[in-house]
Amino acid sequence: MTDIVPFDEGAISRAVDVLRCGGLVAIPTETVYGLAADAANGEAVAGIFAAKGRPSFNPLIAHVSCIAMAERHVDFDPVSRALAERFWPGPLTLVLPVKDVQATGRPVHPLVTAGLATLAVRMPEGRVRDVIKTLDSPVAAPSANTSGRISPTSAEAVAADLGGKIDLILDAGPCGVGVESTIVKIEGDTAHLLRPGGLAAEEIEKFLGQRLIRADHAAAIQAPGMMASHYAPDAAVRLNVSAVLPGEALLAFGPNRVSGAEHAKAVLNLSESGSLREAASNLFDFMRRLDQSGASAIAVEPIPVEGLGEAINDRLKRAAAPR
Length: 323
What we know:
Layout (H helix, E strand, L loop, with lengths): L2 E4 L2 H12 L4 E4 L4 E6 L3 H11 L8 E3 L3 H5 L6 H10 L4 E6 L12 H4 L4 E5 L5 H8 L3 E2 L14 H8 L5 E4 L10 E6 L2 E6 L5 H8 L4 E2 L21 E3 L9 E5 L14 E3 L6 H16 L5 E4 L8 H12 L3
Parallel strand pairs: 1-8, 2-8, 4-6, 5-9, 10-11, 12-15, 13-14, 13-15
Antiparallel strand pairs: 2-3, 3-7, 4-7, 5-6, 9-10
Main location: cytoplasm
EC number: 2.7.7.87
Keywords: ATP-binding, Cytoplasm, Nucleotide-binding, Nucleotidyltransferase, Transferase, tRNA processing
């Protein structure tokens, strides 16, 4: 059985010991819980793919404790460097060229990049950076769930999905942001949004003074979270509903309900006040709970697309995609 321990000082050294031995640790970040392995250990990284049932062509994010650690492995262009200095630590991932010769005796393993010439890099908020700093190596850490399923925002959700398949879960309570990081790639003078996430695209666009080019969903995978079907519950998902059908649960938003809401099998409101930040933090937990209600489908009320609503709608569209 997988151990669940409070994320205190003792847990940091214990997690580092597990990682150094090639084990897997579920780590709490501000976005979602991640399934971490030493990014330089190929066997450990392969363990991530095995535990999640994740296809090997889907790259992973390398989490670092500081910009200097990232610079051992990737080359920063001036714009990406400015983005890192402005938004790290935080829910922003940058896709950067891997150095020809990584400035370390323990380079990031090619499994992390899925054979690409780029590496997705992020500096998370919070004490999880103490684990990475003590390990003195980036950790590869996709969401700590079975591939394609709902991402976990609590230690309990990790245990319910991957318990018995991983070595340790660090419990720091619920995640504050609740959706994965925003992923950006700079190419020349153009900034590409590969995945909307916990940092609103508008904030990045304001900082850069230019619009982010949204990724073509039919294009080749360049970063995590770009597969068409992802974040999926067992129940079917219907989006932007105007009415709830018999046997459905309702994922609501805001103060007003759609027709038939009173007959829904279960109802959870992402935010009574219409706060997109609150909705993002509740999204995966509420989807998981409605999925456990026994409903035939989850009906989702319309959610605005601006701000964090772009990331929320992205996750919902992938959850509703054919599987």
